[in-house]
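Standup notes
- DV: blocked on the single-chain target, sequence here:
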Amino acid sequence: MEALLHIYRDGCRTIGPRDKVLKGSQVACGFPACKGIETLVCHFSSCKTRVPGGCVHCKHMWQLFELHSCLCNDLDSCKVPLCRRFKEKMQQ
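- DV (later): unblocked, structure below
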């Protein structure tokens, strides 16, 4: 939750894969909680656990996607995966 507050309050925009070059004057965020989110995203993208109930780390990522979609007001321009899908699911 600390990282999410940091992202929304301070506008952190550099969380993501470190194999990509950051744009312009961007530097990698040094906020410790952002490192945790980056690790979680990395795990989520490569997790091979496909069992009922799933992986505890992946469950946390799904919860973050859902939380984001509850707070997001940029439906048409949002770049967070599954944001639109979660919003549509909530409206049903």
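- Follow-up: Helices lie at 2-10, 32-46, 56-71, 83-91.
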